[in-house]
Design a protein that fits this description.
Strand content: under 5%
Shape: globular
CATH topology of the domain at 26-140: Cytochrome Bc1 Complex, Chain D, domain 2
Helix content: 40-55%
Order of helices and strands: HHHHHEEHHHH
Distance between the termini: 65 Å
Largest sheet: 2 strands, antiparallel
Radius of gyration: 18 Å
Bound molecules: heme C
Structural class: mainly alpha
CATH class of the domain at 26-140: Mainly Alpha
Number of helices: 9
Strand order of the largest sheet: 1-2
CATH architecture of the domain at 26-140: Orthogonal Bundle
Number of strands: 2
Length: 166
């Protein structure tokens, strides 16, 4: 018996770190995740979701911002959360460290995002897109897009602002 177990041990160590950061997803989200065949593009796949489902409370309008969090600028989204010391909304490439991931997957009405009262529920596909994008490094809009669309935007500020004028 031992001779079967011992060869398994090193392979478990090799697999472990990668599996740690890919949490098990509910079946509907996992099915949508498996259907994704292209790398996520901020403007095409991500911005429409954040804009429809999150910006009402985490967008540019300061008066409506909840928890001091804005998700329309990458600097704020990658930075420490004003109301949750030590945590960040989006940790590029690290799902388990991204508060956004825990919030969108939660079933706890006190914790989940968007808030149940807002009736802005995310579909399984939208969750899968956000998850894949964070895993791939939460990459902002391509610079080419910025340059073509924003005359006044420097390369640096394009990255910081997800390429959004505000
Ligand atoms: C209708 C308003 C509303 C919408 C829409 C909304 N949120 Fe929130 N969000 C809140 C409120 C209120 C809080 C603060 C209370 C709390 O922490 O649960 C919050 C807190 C958060 C936090 C935690 C901040 C912290 O300091 O810990 C994250 C992360 C978050 N929202 C992400 C999202 C994401 C991602 C979306 C879109 C998918 C979203 N929210 C949509 C109202 C909203």
């Amino acid at each position: 018996m031992l001779k079967y177990i011992i060869p398994l041990v090193p392979s478990l160590f090799i697999l472990a770190p990668e599996q740690n950061d890919v949490p098990k997803l509910p079946a509907d989200v996992a099915a949508e995740y498996r259907k994704i065949s292209t790398p996520m593009d901020y403007n095409q796949h991500v911005k429409p979701i954040l804009s429809d489902k999150c910006f009402a409370c985490h967008g540019p309008d300061k008066a409506k911002q909840k928890a001091g969090l804005r998700l329309d600028q990458s600097a704020a989204a990658y930075g420490f959360l004003p109301e949750s010391p030590g945590k960040v909304a989006i940790a590029p490439g690290k799902l388990a460290k991204s508060e956004v991931f825990h919030r969108i997957m939660s079933t706890d009405p006190e914790y989940k995002m968007p808030t149940p009262q807002s009736h802005l529920d995310l579909s399984a596909k939208e969750k899968a897109y956000l998850i894949k994008w964070i895993e791939e490094g939460a990459i902002p809009a391509a610079l080419g897009f910025c340059e073509a669309n924003q005359k006044t935007c420097s390369v640096h500020s394009c990255i910081l602002e997800w390429c959004e004028p505000y």
